[in-house]
Amino acid sequence: xxxxxxxxxxxxxxxxxxxxxxxxxxxxxxxxxxxxxxxxxxxxxxxxxxxxxxxxxxxxxxxxxxxxxxxxxxxxxxxxxxxxxxxxxxxxxxxxxxxxxxxxxxxxxxxxxxxxxxxxxxxxxxxxxxxxxxxxxxxxxxxxxxxxxxxxxxxxxxxxxxxxxxxxxxxxxxxxxxxxxxxxxxxxxxxxxxxxxxxxxxxxxxxxxxxxxxxxxxxxxxxxxxxxxxxxxxxxxxxxxxxxxxxxxxxxxxxxxxxxxxxxxxxxxxxxxxxxxxxxxxxxxxxxxxxxxxxxxxxxxxxxxxxxxxxxxxxxxxxxxxxxxxxxxxxxxxxxxxxxxxxxxxxxxxxxxxxxxxxxxxxxxxxxxxxxxxxxxxxxxxxxxxxxxxxxxxxxxxxxxxxxxxxxxxxxxxxxxxxxxxxxxxxxxxxxxxxxxxxxxxxxxxxxxxxxxxxxxxxxxxxxxxxxxxxxxxxxxxxxxxxxxxxxxxxxxxxxxxxxxxxxxxxxxxxxxxxxxxxxxxxxxxxxxxxxxxxxxxxxxxx
Length: 543
Ligand code: VG1
Ligand code: CO
What we know:
Layout: E1 2-7, E2 21-24, H1 25-29, H2 33-44, E3 52-57, H3 63-76, E4 81-89, H4 92-101, E5 107-110, E6 122-128, H5 137-149, E7 152-157, E8 167-171, E9 174-179, H6 183-192, H7 195-203, E10 208-211, H8 217-228, E11 236-237, H9 258-264, E12 272-276, E13 283-287, E14 290-292, H10 294-304, E15 317-321, H11 327-335, E16 338-342, H12 350-354, E17 360-363, E18 367-370, H13 378-392, H14 396-407, E19 409-420, H15 422-439, E20 443-444, E21 447-454, E22 457-458, E23 465-466, E24 471-475, E25 479-485, E26 493-503, H16 513-516, H17 518-528, H18 530-534, E27 541-542
Parallel strand pairs: 3-4, 3-5, 4-9, 10-11, 10-12, 15-16, 15-17
Antiparallel strand pairs: 1-7, 2-6, 5-6, 8-9, 12-13, 13-14, 17-18, 19-26, 19-27, 20-21, 21-24, 22-23, 24-25, 25-26
Helix pairs in contact: 2-3, 2-5, 7-13, 10-11
Bound molecules: alpha-D-glucose-1-phosphate-6-vanadate and cobalt (II) ion.
């Protein structure tokens, strides 16, 4: 087989965002687009010669073709081995695990996560480093720099490989190992959780539904929940991954997982409901009649993780992204463990996990995970909840009531304004930034600002500074709002407005979330001028 060295020139629009490179699928399909980016990755990490990688994706449209290109390029760049999921499928947490299990030099994950899939929808490509986690900023910046200078890429002239059966095959001098995507991941879960206990709880009549949203967790949830744990057939909904996720957004929140939400709020609700996203790293948890915000879920898991065998020794600490509510901080303070606040994006947790400073991490966007891999992990969060429920033998609602009685409640919601023209979104942020120092002490819609700043993070392990990570405004009476621009959208700019209001342990915790937030919502609307600037009176999505 012959290596071709193809002359190329840089292509615009290859700047990695919150979670790798995410663009319209047709952009990825343009000649040379994938090739340039993959060559930039190899160049940025000092070449691929002699190296081993993991490759897999969420099965969306263009997944299979992109993987064939990556394999041919890895071979032509001198890689010795690539481990690839059968049929090109690997959930993000499973890919992270394989990188760690086999000690590879990194991996490439093909996904646009919760964004819809299809030829007119979204595609993505993310590089993970040898620790199994998303490349940190210095690596993504190096990759981006190489996308600006790349002038040729190497690719093997060969036909497509058959990735439908596990086993080893050769591509030039490189070995391609096709592996079952579920097996090693499932084995890892069995080391962390008490499968016997969960199995008994299910056999005794505990009911659940897991919505895989036509995405990659279908096969994982089938094998673990219906297979190993013996839940009845039909427990996993929408279990077969499809190229366009059944035409929906594979985003596990009350808006996009509405069918499951409706079931959970009905008379026919099972004891427990959950959903995961396109690439299997997010989770939504719902009890009978009660949605659990991801921020609360992180706090509950932090308070109860020791009930699962994998965490019986207790937690080193817990980290949350800045816009995530402070509910997990309250738990950490009470049980006397470290807590950290990081910028949005899982890559910022990597150093804390590697250094053993934290065990659990979470984001308000439905991401929760631990030091078992270096990504957030949807099915893991579901299993940890089930393990806790099997130990405590109470309902999800009882767990929450008990939690709020102990710690107080952080009412929480995120309001997204999608596809705002970029210059308007940027102007809104710039106007606000210019006024930040004057805000403290002023009142807006009856709320007095106690502090306002822009979040800048210094990594406690390597000292890297990441600035401009979102504007924070706190109000007297323990309310907070955060404003930031999304780094995963593919159309215009998404403005995210995060709202929270704390109610102490003695208060009544049965208020409707949006009502509990009305004060901070009106105040931040007045401060930011969001309605005037965007022409919108309502957000597009409230989660
Ligand atoms: C969003 C979320 C963030 C998450 C990121 C990737 O980013 O807010 O918390 O880490 O998606 O999630 P942004 O920049 O659009 O707010 V996923 O499931 O892609 O891996
Ligand atoms: Co995801």
